[in-house]
């Protein structure tokens, strides 16, 4: 039997991560690069992307773009594929949470949330899947949420988009897994990111969230490394259409 550790080796693979300028996307780029992947990071903030690319080193590139701009999707895919070829791995970490209460949800906030959190993962995947089909190998990892199944205050638009991500993951697995492409999602609990800064700035709220988990603490960015490597590698070749909750057991209680 070959060394089981080789199942997690991403040497020779090209990974594209959206939302890589900060938070969970940035961590994903660092983790996949450490496992041997050539990484293309995508986000709007050019300076943050360049800093990340410099930190990773030679097998890294970045593309500064608005991934929700569907009119320029073709040029975006060209820019993503230019440094190392078309991606084998696609991680959709870009996201937004307007936190508008139900009675204050605006059409603009709703459309912005659904466009970035739900529409972009589908249409960007759709555009890059043909190259994965030619290789008979691909990994798509979406980002779900606690709100994929739970209702939180101020989370109408965000929760609707993340519930959609759960079904998007199942539906794209049904469509593309016969071609060697798996589609799965990670559902993070509470991790310290820009999106959750207000929560972690409130000690009482952060402590309540930690107490809600089975483990008894909130997430650390390194807690994502193993699940990400699993879903992006040969280790998960028979796993598709699944939402893996990385939440310390928050949704188990």
From TrEMBL:
UniProt cross-references to Gene3D superfamilies, sorted A to Z:
NAD(P)-binding Rossmann-like Domain
Its Enzyme Commission number(s) read 1.1.1.69
Q: Which UniProt keywords apply?
A: Oxidoreductase
- Can the keyword tRNA processing be found in this entry's annotation? no
What range(s) does the Ketoreductase domain occupy? 13-189
Q: Give GO terms for biological process.
A: fatty acid elongation
Pfam families from the UniProt entry: adh_short_C2 (PF13561)
User: MF terms per GO, please?
Assistant: gluconate 5-dehydrogenase activity
Q: Which InterPro entries match?
A: KR_dom, NAD(P)-bd_dom_sf, Sc_DH/Rdtase_CS, SDR_fam
**Matches recorded under PANTHER family:** BLL7886 PROTEIN, SHORT-CHAIN DEHYDROGENASES/REDUCTASES FAMILY MEMBER
Could you say which protein family the record assigns here? Answer: Belongs to the short-chain dehydrogenases/reductases (SDR) family.
Q: What is this protein called?
A: Gluconate 5-dehydrogenase
């Amino acid at each position: 039997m070959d060394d089981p550790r080789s199942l997690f080796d991403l040497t020779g693979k090209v990974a594209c991560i959206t939302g890589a300028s900060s938070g969970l996307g940035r961590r994903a780029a660092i983790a996949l690069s450490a496992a041997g992947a050539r990484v293309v990071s995508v986000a709007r903030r050019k300076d943050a992307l360049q800093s990340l690319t410099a930190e990773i080193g030679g097998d890294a590139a970045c593309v500064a773009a608005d991934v929700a701009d569907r009119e320029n999707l073709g040029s975006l895919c060209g820019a993503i594929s230019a440094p190392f070829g078309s991606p084998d791995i696609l991680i959709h970490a870009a996201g937004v949470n307007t936190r508008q209460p139900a009675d204050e949800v605006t059409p603009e906030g709703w459309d912005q949330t659904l466009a970035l959190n739900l529409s972009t993962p589908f249409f960007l995947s759709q555009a890059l899947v043909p190259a994965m089909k030619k290789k008979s190998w691909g990994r798509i990892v979406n980002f779900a949420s606690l709100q994929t199944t739970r209702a939180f205050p101020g989370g109408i638009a965000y929760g609707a988009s993340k519930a959609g991500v759960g079904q998007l993951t199942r539906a794209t697995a049904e469509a593309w897994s016969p071609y060697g492409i798996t589609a799965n999602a990670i559902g993070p609990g509470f991790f310290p990111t820009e999106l959750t800064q207000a929560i972690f700035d409130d000690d009482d709220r952060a402590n309540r969230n930690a107490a809600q988990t089975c483990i008894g603490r909130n997430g650390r960015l390194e807690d994502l490394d193993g699940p990400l490597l699993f879903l992006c590698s040969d280790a998960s070749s028979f796993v598709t259409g699944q939402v893996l909750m990385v939440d310390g057991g928050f949704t188990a209680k």
